[in-house]
Design a protein that fits this description.
Number of strands: 18
Number of helices: 0
Structural class: mainly beta
Largest sheet: 8 strands, antiparallel
Shape: globular
Radius of gyration: 16 Å
Distance between the termini: 11 Å
Length: 210
């Protein structure tokens, strides 16, 4: 199974994705189109996250830099691991472009929210690996920082390749290797997120590997 999106103007279909997010992020602002990429851009006026809708023992993504939108798309196409992702992304002096693999979304009234997923977040201090768990009865997400691979990551354009396997995650970021041992899912959906800065995505290439 394969999927490819070139995020240049008029070359991809937003309907291939659910536009989802956290309960703590009340807005659902779509990605903005630029000539050769898409960007999360600025948040709607007067946006504030609701910290009561998240439980975490770490600093939570999306809870600062609130001038910028939290925008997350998840494929409607399902994949079976090993799931290989290749992508180019960029951020400016700070940001948190993120790639995710999980069990999909749940619709609550007119808003899609994450179910359970793992995330690979790139930021100026390296890579964070997160586990996101939906608690539907309470309408909250439990967010756990699984690992922080700490190093300096400069703003600008970067290449990333990620393997989501049943036993963990392997990352190649501009030739730098990183990994996480953690049990994942027998099948799931791929997502990407722009938040905490001006993040840009240029393409998304997904393929199941034997």
């Amino acid at each position: 199974m394969k999927y490819y999106a070139d995020f240049s103007r008029s070359k991809w279909n937003p309907d291939d994705f659910w536009h989802a997010g956290f309960y703590s992020i009340p807005h659902r602002k779509p990605f903005e189109q630029e000539d050769d990429c898409i960007t999360n851009g600025l948040a709607p006026d007067f946006f504030k996250p609701d910290p009561t809708k998240m439980v975490s023992d770490a600093e939570i993504a999306g809870m600062d830099h609130n001038d910028f939108a939290f925008t997350a798309y998840i494929t409607k196409q399902k994949f079976v691991p090993t799931v290989n992702i290749k992508s180019d992304f960029s951020f400016e002096s700070f940001g948190a472009p993120t790639y995710a693999y999980g069990t999909g979304v749940e619709k609550d009234e007119e808003m899609y929210v994450y179910q359970t997923q793992v995330e690979v977040t790139l930021w100026e201090e390296g890579i964070n690996y997160w586990h996101i768990e939906l608690k539907p009865e309470e309408k909250i997400h439990k967010v756990t920082l699984l690992k922080h691979d700490k190093f300096e990551l400069a703003g600008g354009r970067h290449y990333i390749e990620i393997d989501f396997t049943k036993n963990g995650i392997s990352v190649n970021l501009d030739g730098r290797e990183s990994n996480l041992d953690f049990p994942l899912f027998d099948e799931g959906y791929v997502g990407f997120i722009g938040c905490e800065g001006m993040n840009r995505f240029y393409y998304l290439d997904i393929e199941e590997k034997d």
